[in-house]
Amino acid sequence: MTRRGRAARRAVLALLAVAVAVAGVSYGQALTAPGDASWTVRTVEWVRDNGGAGLVDAIENWWYTRSAPTNASPSRSDLPVLGAPPAAARPAAPTHRTAAPAPTPMAIPPGITAVPGEGRWVPGRVDKNGVPALYTTFVQPDPAHASVVAGVAWIRASDTAVHLVPGTAQPGGPSWPGDARVAPRDVPGLVATFNSGWRFQDLLGGFYEGGRYSHALEQGAGSVVIDRAGHVSIGAWGRDVSMSQDVVAVRQNLHLIVTAGKPAPGIANASGPWGVPGNQRQFTWRSGLGVDAHGNLIYVAGDHMTLRVLTNALVAARAVRAVELDMHAGMVFFARWVPGRTGAIAPEKLLPAMPSRADRFLRPDQRDFFYVTLG
Hints:
Strand content: 25-35%
Number of helices: 3
Helix content: 10-25%
């Protein structure tokens, strides 16, 4: 090799060493950034943010579309424990003050052999009059894959207030107030905690909270809108919902998946407006949030669900409008909070297989999230 060739090789090796060192520093910063997140989530998001988004999308589409669930009955370990609620969480005997309708029982999808407890609503936290503010159940939402289990939560609008909290990494921008966790003063009144939507790097949509924007609100985007009373409206921005002096928070995520009580047109189209082409057909963890005709909240989540299966489950739970929230393991999470025998409240996962601590969001989290308190 000539002297010039050796010099060129040394220059290339030096540049590669610098690139590796820079990448190593960047990756190290991602692994140690503030906020709760697993190393796998941090790694995937670092790859996405450093030019690898297309590669990650391709791998996820390849893997999750080839990981179809079985048609066997669900494993007992995948089902929530549906025992009697703790004494402090049991509804009081109905009176003229406490009479309030429970959610309508969920029908078992055709072709499904029901397992014990399926579709039966279990009351959670009760209000001062003994009326349950939350009910949960589970269903098998996919007749073609009976092993799939979806957890469903129904939250009474008249008894509760919903809060949106920015995370340490999402929606991004300078530090937000709130310390990226449930406000300590609100912990005693917790009814539920649950995940928000996709990363803003991966969607067209905006975020508004406390008079401040991060990413502009997009016309037509599916939007979760919270007013000063803590009540939620869900709809297409500019058509069903819009900004007003009463709005305190808006979280957008893709487009509506349920509209007028039916699946949105084209929901089964792999190239529809719900993320990168093909992701709608992935068998993976998914979550969605809707409202019923009376404004009550409906949350649905489960593993090995396509977007169409998630949508059908929301419709079966009587959502009239709904958006998809986050997807994939580590992103999807819901806990109900109920008093124990001593009166202290404790979290219970909606589904036992959800891969997060039950008390997630009591510590600073990288992702924005929602929590619900007694009104």
